[in-house]
Amino acid sequence: FRQHKAELAHEPFSLAETAELAQTMMKSKMDEKGIDFEVSCELPYPCVVGDGMRLKQVLLNILSNAVKFTPRGGRVKLELTQTSEEGSHVVTKISVSDNGIGMSDEFRTRIFDSFSQENRAEGAGGTGLGMTISYLIMKQMGGDLTVESKIGKGSRFTAILPAATAAELSAPAGGAVTSGSGRRGLRVLIAEDNEMNSLILSN
Q1: Helix 52-68 vs helix 195-202: angle between axes, to the nearest 10 degrees?
Q2: Would you call 72 exposed, middle or buried from its count of C-beta atoms within 10 A (0-12, 13-18, 19+)?
């Protein structure tokens, strides 16, 4: 796996909308397993400048991983919080925690390495490239992606996103938050073996 840098957008987007979209897209998977999905957003600055699509990709990768390794009737929690910095910058912390099967210390230290997998959940498969891609995206955004985990206790993934704040985005009739695209007129060939990633990148 070669580390190619993605071309990141630099435009206003809504963190609150990103969390809401992720919640909507994951609802059916959560319902199928009877997982209690809790979402908490404490965002004094809900609109920031960056690549909302890539952040959504990271968030959905992490949530998909949590669902995969959380048993039926388990719990998954998504939390978004912020701390302000000097000037017009904030740091957003996005945390996804679960009470799933967890992972060994040895695997945890290499989960973001290319092709790392740990197949301990029956029929679950491994984490594959999704977490590696997510880690690289967060690093390219100037942030980070970390994980805490214990076998039998669950895992917590935390994405750190530093970004400039943006003015509130306009909400037209229907309630959808809009912003400039920055990608109009581009044709992109996507080579992606993960169904969720393909869906995100094609929208």
Answers
A1: 160
A2: exposed
Q: What is the DSSP string of 35-80?
A: -EEEEEEE-SS-EEEE-HHHHHHHHHHHHHHHHHTS-TT-EEEEEE
* pTM over cut 0.85: no
Question: Which of helix, strand or coil describes residue 195?
Answer: helix
Residue with tokens 């229907």: 174
For 198, the token pair is 């393909």
Pick from 78, 79, 73, 62: nearest CA to 145? 62
Bridge partners of 49? 12
pLDDT tens figures, 87-142: 789 999 999 999 999 998 888 888 887 545 444 444 444 445 688 899 999 999 99
Write out residues in the chain with pLDDT < 50, as ranges: 1-2, 115, 117-127, 171-194, 196-203
CA distance 70 to 72: 7
